[in-house]
Design brief:
46% helix; globular; four-stranded mixed beta sheet; single chain; 339 residues; alpha/beta
């Protein structure tokens, strides 16, 4: 039986099936955009099941095949920012980050079915679970530079550990991955057909998660992560952009368009954040680094403008300040990271 009494909210429903406890995100009209209510609901369930002897594995899934979680509730964050300022907006976001870290550190195995869209905060919820499952319907991305923010929700930790400069490319461009690509990039562990999710759920109800996932065969031909000399981690951001401008890689033209559409300060913040996360020794440290950059970006006008252009007016014509990479003053970014 599916219920919401344990979570205390209708957007987080729960069910038990044998040894499996299921947490279902159920806000389909909003593509399960994670907000404070959803985060606290998930936390209530995890705390209730932590010492429950009948729950051995926790499954985090969506009620809709369209989206696991399309990201944070950006309009709610914008409203908080407008009404109460950047400190209040960051407190709201940081509270959700705490739930993501609880999932990552949970004492029992957590399985995430990142079926459908999983972006930004969706990666934060599902991308740090012990067993991460994607399907042919999965669309994974960290698109924060397009809205005046910076890769967050632990995304920089994953991006900075992807092969070569491929993760740096996605941090700067917000590029999307399918399920197989997400596995190759380290955002997922298993790719299975969406039609097999019910069977996998049934096995998890009967057997320990470790035994179940030992039965899943890896893809016979994992998605190739192409070598991208343009995104040399040792190069400056300016050198990377010049390299992409001259690049002959098939994605060079679309990458340039994405960088041009993005917020210039966000792109610099993503570059700094990727390098700082690469030096981090833990996911928790990466969250702390991201938090400093997020708080800095919330204090600027770009996030409000990005949400206006992408989600409210939907004219897709944000006016960034400054408008070009060459005009970005990186000293405040460096100071924020040094705090």
């Amino acid at each position: 039986m599916i219920e919401d009494a344990l979570s205390g909210t209708t957007c987080v429903r729960t069910a038990r099936r044998g040894r499996l406890g299921c947490i279902m995100l159920d806000k389909p009209k909003r593509l399960n955009a994670v907000d404070l209510e959803m985060a606290i609901g998930i936390e209530r369930v995890l705390n209730a099941w932590r010492h429950d002897p009948f729950v051995h594995t926790v499954l985090l899934q969506s009620s809709s095949s369209r989206a696991f979680c399309a990201g944070g509730d950006l309009k709610a964050i914008r409203d908080m920012l407008v009404m109460f300022g950047p400190d209040a907006a960051f407190v709201l976001m940081n509270r959700v980050y705490q739930t993501m870290q609880l999932i990552a550190d949970y004492s029992k195995p957590v399985v995430s079915f990142m079926d459908g869209i999983a972006m930004g905060g969706g990666v934060g919820l599902g991308g740090h679970a012990r067993y991460r499952v994607v399907t042919e319907r999965s669309v994974i991305a960290m698109p924060e530079t397009a809205i005046g923010l910076v890769p967050d929700a632990g995304g920089s930790w994953l991006l900075s550990r992807a092969p070569g400069g491929a993760g740096l490319r996605l941090a700067l461009t917000g590029g999307r991955m399918n399920g197989a690509e997400a596995q190759s990039m380290g955002f997922a562990d298993y790719v299975i057909p969406s039609e097999s999710l019910d069977d996998l759920r049934g096995l998890l109800a009967l057997k320990p998660a470790e035994e179940v996932f030992e039965l899943i065969r890896p893809l016979s031909a994992p998605a190739e992560v192409p070598a991208m000399a343009e995104y040399d981690p040792s190069a400056s951001l300016e050198q990377i952009v010049r390299g992409v401008e001259r690049g002959k890689h098939p994605t060079a033209r679309s990458d340039l368009k994405s960088i041009a559409r993005g917020c210039p300060t966000s792109i610099f913040a993503a570059w700094y954040g990727w390098h700082a996360a690469r030096r981090a020794s833990s996911l928790q440290e990466a969250f702390a680094i991201e938090g400093r950059l997020v708080r800095y970006m919330l204090g600027r006008p770009d996030f409000i403008e990005g949400v206006r252009a992408r989600l409210i007016d939907r004219d897709n014509m944000p006016i960034w300040y400054p408008r070009v990479l060459a005009a970005v003053d990186v000293r405040p970014l460096e100071a924020a990271l040094a705090e």
